[in-house]
């Protein structure tokens, strides 16, 4: 059933891959939503399932071994998993757009920048080629590319990484989508360009009233951009709240550890805190109990046996950890003593 006000609703999503004849879940029971005009940051270390989730939303999982086997992804109330490829093509780029970490892999190296932006516009409208080219040039100007009349005739390799990411953003916003999914959009860029690209995404989000789902492992980016934060660990949501509470009152030991690993100004390089261990791979995922148990400083014996469920510790703040007693719907979770 569709919730009021949600643009995107991910409901009990299970996505997995066939690996050596067995099916392993990379996403196991993920639920959260994105409201119109909201910036939701999905955060977690490498291997937590952030990209698999965005590929699930876009219905772009590798066909040979990946599939959604349970749950729903509703966009404006419509379950995307039930749509045909043709229907999904009508939504991708028009209603939901995506920008990737490395624009070079998303841009076609043998086609000019102008041709590639024109294509997006032509796919979703019946305007003339001349009008489309005018719009492409304007879009490049909107994303801060001043020589846009020349750039339309150039190829991706002739541009810097930052410029290529601006081109990707121009393509993504060409049809004014209601939702932009940005998967680590600044990771491949140097720090100054990162800041400019984030500022640009924020400005466009404000100007166009677009919702953004921003995937990142960088909590600095989260602090800068997010209204709400979804913390993922090993294919599950472990904590979800508004950005202030995530930074000032983190509940889950994993969120606390992520925050603790942000370098501080007065810290020496050899004192940097890192989270010991790594995210388990799909074939090594614990069969029961908490998936963070082996790395958790607060682990208790029962954490290996009991699967923690999401508990609401405060309105709109949910945590998946046995430290917080499960609550009944509408009741606040208690901290276990
Ligand atoms: N095509 C695939 N076949 C098998 N396993 C896969 C495939 N794609 C992803 N996985 C596995 O799914 C898990 C989640 O991967 P995912 O790429 O979503 O992580 P992530 O959080 O986005 O990490 P990163 O920030 O490094 O991209 C990982 O264990 C990964 O190895």
UniProtKB/TrEMBL annotation:
Compartment(s) of residence: Cell membrane
Stretches assigned to the ABC transporter domain: 8-259
GO biological process, one term: peptide transport
Keyword annotations: ATP-binding, Cell membrane, Membrane, Nucleotide-binding, Transport
Chain ranges passing through the membrane: none
Membrane topology note: Peripheral membrane protein
The keyword Nucleotide-binding is annotated on this UniProt entry: yes
InterPro entries reported for this sequence: AAA+_ATPase, ABC_Ni/Peptide_Import, ABC_transporter-like_ATP-bd, ABC_transporter-like_CS, Oligopep_ABC_C, P-loop_NTPase
Gene3D superfamilies: P-loop containing nucleotide triphosphate hydrolases
Name used for this protein in its record: Peptide ABC transporter ATP-binding protein
């Amino acid at each position: 059933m569709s919730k009021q006000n949600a643009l995107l609703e991910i409901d009990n999503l299970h996505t997995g891959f066939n690996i050596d004849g067995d099916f392993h879940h990379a996403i196991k029971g993920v639920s959260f939503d994105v409201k119109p005009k909201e910036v939701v940051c999905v955060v977690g270390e490498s291997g937590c399932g952030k990209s698999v989730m965005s590929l699930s939303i876009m219905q772009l999982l590798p066909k040979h071994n990946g599939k959604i086997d349970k749950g729903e992804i509703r966009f404006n109330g419509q379950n995307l998993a039930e749509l045909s490829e043709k229907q999904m093509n009508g939504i991708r780029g028009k209603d939901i757009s995506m920008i990737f970490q490395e624009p070079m892999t998303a841009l076609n190296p043998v086609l000019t920048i102008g041709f590639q932006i024109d294509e997006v516009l032509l796919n979703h409208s019946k305007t003339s080629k001349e009008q489309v080219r005018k719009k492409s040039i304007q879009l490049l100007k909107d994303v801060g590319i001043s020589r846009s009349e020349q750039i339309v005739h150039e190829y991706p390799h002739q541009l810097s990484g930052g410029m290529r990411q601006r081109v990707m953003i121009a393509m993504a916003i060409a049809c004014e989508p209601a939702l932009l999914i940005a998967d680590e959009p600044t990771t491949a860029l140097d720090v100054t360009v990162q800041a400019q690209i984030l500022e640009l995404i924020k400005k466009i989000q404000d100007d166009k009233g677009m919702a953004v789902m921003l995937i990142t492992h960088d909590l600095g980016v989260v602090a800068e951009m997010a209204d709400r934060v979804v913390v993922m660990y090993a294919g599950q949501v472990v904590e979800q709240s508004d950005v202030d509470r995530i930074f000032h009152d983190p509940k889950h030991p994993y969120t606390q550890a992520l925050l603790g690993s942000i370098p501080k100004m007065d810290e020496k390089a050899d004192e940097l805190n890192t989270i010991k261990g790594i995210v388990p791979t799909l074939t090594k995922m614990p069969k029961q109990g908490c998936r963070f148990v082996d790395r958790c400083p607060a682990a208790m014996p029962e954490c290996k046996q009991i699967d923690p469920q999401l508990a609401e510790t405060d309105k709109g703040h949910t945590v998946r950890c046995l430290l917080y007693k499960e609550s009944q719907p509408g009741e606040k979770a208690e901290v276990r003593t």
